């Protein structure tokens, strides 16, 4: 096998080098999956930015619930103390915060909660075991209804 550097490498040497190459750890793989999920969640915030304020916020929170559902599969292996995990949390707050603020300015979302409040509430909703998908959807609708500004708030 010929390498771009001009040196010739025998198949045995190439195999030996591949065997010595560092292999990703389980933690590395879990972190990569998590990073990809967070990036998709953050992109979703940008993708729905053209929707009216309430619809954009509700759509993004539903996407967040889906993200938490996916994360449950590997959450035990996720190291929450790493800098990258903390950066991912910040990225989610940075993505969802403007959606919440826009909905609050428009008077369609309760003015009190912060994005951190919402992420914690919807994460909690996402981790509960439900009887079926219909029950999960009812609970999610109740949470969204509680977040929506009442006529008195508007």
Quick description:
With 154 residues, this protein is mainly α. The protein contains 6 helices and no strands.
Written overview of the protein:
It contains 6 helices and no strands. Helix 5 runs antiparallel to helix 6. The protein has helices at 11-20, 26-47, 53-71, 83-105, 115-127, 133-147. Helices cover 66% and strands 0% of the residues. The chain is globular and about 60 Å long. The chain is mainly α and 154 residues long.
Coarse shape: globular
Provide mean pLDDT, rounded. 84
Oligomer: single chain
- SSE order, as H and E? HHHHHH
Q: Could you tell me the radius of gyration in angstroms?
A: 22 Å
The amount of beta strand, in percent, is under 5%
Number of strands: 0
Helix fraction, binned, reads 55-70%
Give the count of helical stretches.
6
Largest sheet data = none
Question: Span from first to last CA?
Answer: 71 Å
Identify low-pLDDT runs: 1-5
Which class best fits the helix and strand makeup? mainly alpha
